[in-house]
Protein backbone atom coordinates (compact mmCIF):
# COMPACT_ATOMS: atom_id res chain seq x y z
CA UNK A 1 0.00 0.00 0.00
CA UNK A 2 1.46 3.38 -1.00
CA UNK A 3 1.79 6.27 1.45
CA UNK A 4 -0.97 8.10 -0.42
CA UNK A 5 -3.29 5.08 -0.24
CA UNK A 6 -2.59 4.73 3.49
CA UNK A 7 -3.28 8.45 4.02
CA UNK A 8 -6.51 8.19 2.02
CA UNK A 9 -7.72 5.27 4.12
CA UNK A 10 -6.93 7.02 7.41
CA UNK A 11 -8.54 10.41 6.70
CA UNK A 12 -11.97 11.65 5.70
CA UNK A 13 -12.51 11.70 1.93
CA UNK A 14 -11.30 14.86 0.30
CA UNK A 15 -14.61 15.11 -1.50
CA UNK A 16 -16.60 15.18 1.79
CA UNK A 17 -16.77 19.00 1.70
CA UNK A 18 -17.13 19.18 -2.07
CA UNK A 19 -20.59 20.76 -2.11
CA UNK A 20 -19.61 23.74 0.05
CA UNK A 21 -16.39 24.16 -1.98
CA UNK A 22 -18.39 24.01 -5.23
CA UNK A 23 -20.93 26.57 -3.99
CA UNK A 24 -18.18 28.96 -2.84
CA UNK A 25 -16.26 28.65 -6.12
CA UNK A 26 -19.38 29.16 -8.22
CA UNK A 27 -20.49 32.12 -6.08
CA UNK A 28 -17.05 33.76 -6.39
CA UNK A 29 -16.85 33.11 -10.14
CA UNK A 30 -20.31 34.60 -10.64
CA UNK A 31 -19.44 37.65 -8.52
CA UNK A 32 -16.27 38.55 -10.45
CA UNK A 33 -17.94 37.77 -13.80
CA UNK A 34 -20.67 40.32 -13.06
CA UNK A 35 -18.32 42.84 -11.42
CA UNK A 36 -14.72 42.30 -12.65
CA UNK A 37 -13.31 45.04 -10.40
CA UNK A 38 -14.27 42.97 -7.35
CA UNK A 39 -11.70 40.37 -8.38
CA UNK A 40 -8.81 42.78 -8.81
CA UNK A 41 -6.41 44.02 -6.20
CA UNK A 42 -2.85 44.03 -4.94
CA UNK A 43 -1.60 41.61 -2.31
CA UNK A 44 1.18 42.88 -0.05
CA UNK A 45 3.50 40.64 1.97
CA UNK A 46 6.12 42.23 4.21
CA UNK A 47 9.44 40.51 4.90
CA UNK A 48 11.89 41.76 7.53
CA UNK A 49 15.45 40.48 7.65
CA UNK A 50 16.75 39.48 11.09
CA UNK A 51 20.24 38.41 12.14
CA UNK A 52 21.36 34.99 10.94
CA UNK A 53 19.65 35.30 7.54
CA UNK A 54 16.23 34.79 9.11
CA UNK A 55 13.16 36.60 7.84
CA UNK A 56 9.86 37.40 9.51
CA UNK A 57 7.09 37.22 6.93
CA UNK A 58 3.76 38.95 7.52
CA UNK A 59 0.68 38.95 5.31
CA UNK A 60 -2.54 40.06 6.96
CA UNK A 61 -3.11 37.78 9.96
CA UNK A 62 -0.44 35.29 8.85
CA UNK A 63 3.08 35.19 10.27
CA UNK A 64 5.89 32.76 9.56
CA UNK A 65 9.67 32.53 9.49
CA UNK A 66 11.99 31.89 6.58
CA UNK A 67 15.64 31.12 7.18
CA UNK A 68 18.82 29.80 5.74
CA UNK A 69 20.75 26.79 6.95
CA UNK A 70 24.12 26.96 8.70
CA UNK A 71 25.63 25.69 5.44
CA UNK A 72 24.63 29.05 3.92
CA UNK A 73 25.63 31.15 6.95
CA UNK A 74 22.19 31.15 8.55
CA UNK A 75 20.79 29.90 11.84
CA UNK A 76 18.18 27.39 10.57
CA UNK A 77 15.38 29.64 11.83
CA UNK A 78 12.94 28.13 9.34
CA UNK A 79 12.59 26.58 5.92
CA UNK A 80 14.48 28.42 3.18
CA UNK A 81 12.77 30.50 0.46
CA UNK A 82 12.97 27.62 -2.01
CA UNK A 83 10.89 25.40 0.27
CA UNK A 84 8.19 28.05 0.50
CA UNK A 85 8.35 28.73 -3.26
CA UNK A 86 7.97 25.07 -4.14
CA UNK A 87 5.32 24.77 -1.43
CA UNK A 88 3.44 27.72 -2.94
CA UNK A 89 3.44 26.10 -6.37
CA UNK A 90 2.49 22.65 -5.06
CA UNK A 91 -0.19 23.85 -2.65
CA UNK A 92 -1.73 26.16 -5.25
CA UNK A 93 -1.96 23.21 -7.64
CA UNK A 94 -3.37 20.89 -4.94
CA UNK A 95 -5.96 23.43 -3.77
CA UNK A 96 -6.92 24.10 -7.39
CA UNK A 97 -7.40 20.38 -7.99
CA UNK A 98 -9.63 20.26 -4.91
CA UNK A 99 -11.72 23.21 -6.10
CA UNK A 100 -12.09 21.89 -9.63
CA UNK A 101 -12.85 18.36 -8.38
CA UNK A 102 -15.77 19.89 -6.48
CA UNK A 103 -16.86 22.05 -9.41
CA UNK A 104 -16.70 19.16 -11.89
CA UNK A 105 -18.10 16.54 -9.51
CA UNK A 106 -15.01 14.32 -9.60
CA UNK A 107 -14.53 12.41 -6.32
CA UNK A 108 -10.98 12.45 -4.91
CA UNK A 109 -9.93 10.17 -2.05
CA UNK A 110 -6.33 11.45 -1.84
CA UNK A 111 -4.11 13.74 -3.85
CA UNK A 112 -0.43 14.65 -3.60
CA UNK A 113 1.68 17.06 -5.62
CA UNK A 114 5.47 16.65 -5.55
CA UNK A 115 7.35 19.67 -6.91
CA UNK A 116 10.85 19.05 -8.30
CA UNK A 117 13.22 21.95 -9.00
CA UNK A 118 16.61 21.61 -10.67
CA UNK A 119 19.27 24.13 -9.71
CA UNK A 120 22.95 24.91 -10.11
CA UNK A 121 24.23 26.87 -7.08
CA UNK A 122 27.05 28.42 -9.13
CA UNK A 123 24.55 30.93 -10.53
CA UNK A 124 23.18 32.07 -7.16
CA UNK A 125 26.69 32.31 -5.71
CA UNK A 126 27.89 34.44 -8.63
CA UNK A 127 30.74 32.14 -9.66
CA UNK A 128 29.60 31.44 -13.25
CA UNK A 129 27.85 34.17 -15.24
CA UNK A 130 26.56 31.60 -17.74
CA UNK A 131 24.47 29.87 -15.06
CA UNK A 132 21.15 31.51 -14.07
CA UNK A 133 20.70 32.12 -10.33
CA UNK A 134 17.21 30.61 -10.30
CA UNK A 135 15.88 27.18 -11.05
CA UNK A 136 16.94 25.61 -14.32
CA UNK A 137 13.70 23.64 -14.63
CA UNK A 138 10.69 22.70 -12.55
CA UNK A 139 8.20 19.88 -12.85
CA UNK A 140 5.49 18.40 -10.69
CA UNK A 141 4.09 14.93 -10.20
CA UNK A 142 0.41 14.60 -9.30
CA UNK A 143 -0.65 11.36 -7.62
CA UNK A 144 -4.39 10.79 -7.31
CA UNK A 145 -6.49 8.15 -5.57
CA UNK A 146 -10.04 8.24 -6.94
CA UNK A 147 -12.90 6.00 -8.06
CA UNK A 148 -13.34 8.31 -11.08
CA UNK A 149 -12.25 7.29 -14.56
CA UNK A 150 -8.86 8.24 -15.94
CA UNK A 151 -10.59 10.55 -18.45
CA UNK A 152 -12.46 12.38 -15.66
CA UNK A 153 -9.29 12.79 -13.60
CA UNK A 154 -7.26 14.07 -16.54
CA UNK A 155 -10.04 16.53 -17.44
CA UNK A 156 -10.04 17.77 -13.84
CA UNK A 157 -6.23 18.14 -13.74
CA UNK A 158 -6.08 19.85 -17.14
CA UNK A 159 -8.83 22.31 -16.18
CA UNK A 160 -7.27 23.12 -12.82
CA UNK A 161 -3.81 23.54 -14.39
CA UNK A 162 -5.24 25.97 -16.95
CA UNK A 163 -6.57 28.20 -14.14
CA UNK A 164 -3.77 27.80 -11.57
CA UNK A 165 -2.39 31.22 -10.61
CA UNK A 166 1.01 29.98 -9.36
CA UNK A 167 1.44 27.67 -12.34
CA UNK A 168 0.72 30.67 -14.55
CA UNK A 169 3.17 32.84 -12.56
CA UNK A 170 5.92 30.28 -13.09
CA UNK A 171 5.25 29.78 -16.80
CA UNK A 172 4.58 33.36 -17.92
CA UNK A 173 7.10 36.14 -17.72
CA UNK A 174 5.55 39.09 -15.88
CA UNK A 175 6.90 42.48 -14.89
CA UNK A 176 8.87 42.56 -11.65
CA UNK A 177 9.93 46.04 -10.62
CA UNK A 178 11.97 47.33 -7.72
CA UNK A 179 11.49 50.51 -5.70
CA UNK A 180 14.20 51.57 -3.25
CA UNK A 181 13.88 53.67 -0.10
CA UNK A 182 16.98 54.55 1.89
CA UNK A 183 16.53 56.08 5.33
CA UNK A 184 12.91 56.78 4.49
CA UNK A 185 13.54 58.56 1.17
CA UNK A 186 12.75 57.15 -2.27
CA UNK A 187 15.82 56.65 -4.45
CA UNK A 188 15.95 56.74 -8.24
Stretches where pLDDT falls below 50 for ≥5 residues? none
* SSE order, one letter for each helix or strand: HHEEEHEHEHHEE
Identify the CATH architecture of the domain at 3-29 and 80-172.
2-Layer Sandwich
Task: Please give the oligomerization state of what you see.
Answer: single chain
State the separation between the terminal residues, measured CA to CA.
Answer: 60 Å
What's the count of strands?
A: 7
Q: In percent, how much strand structure appears in the residues?
A: 15-25%
What's the CATH C level of the domain at 3-29 and 80-172?
Alpha Beta
What structural class should be given to the helix and strand makeup? alpha+beta
Order of strands, main sheet, comes to 1-2-3
Largest sheet: 3 strands, antiparallel
Which fold name corresponds to the CATH topology of the domain at 3-29 and 80-172?
Answer: GMP Synthetase, Chain A, domain 3
Mean of residue pLDDT values:
93
Please identify which CATH superfamily of the domain at 3-29 and 80-172 we are dealing with.
K homology (KH) domain
Share of helix among residues?
Answer: 25-40%
Rg from Cα: 20 Å
Net shape = globular
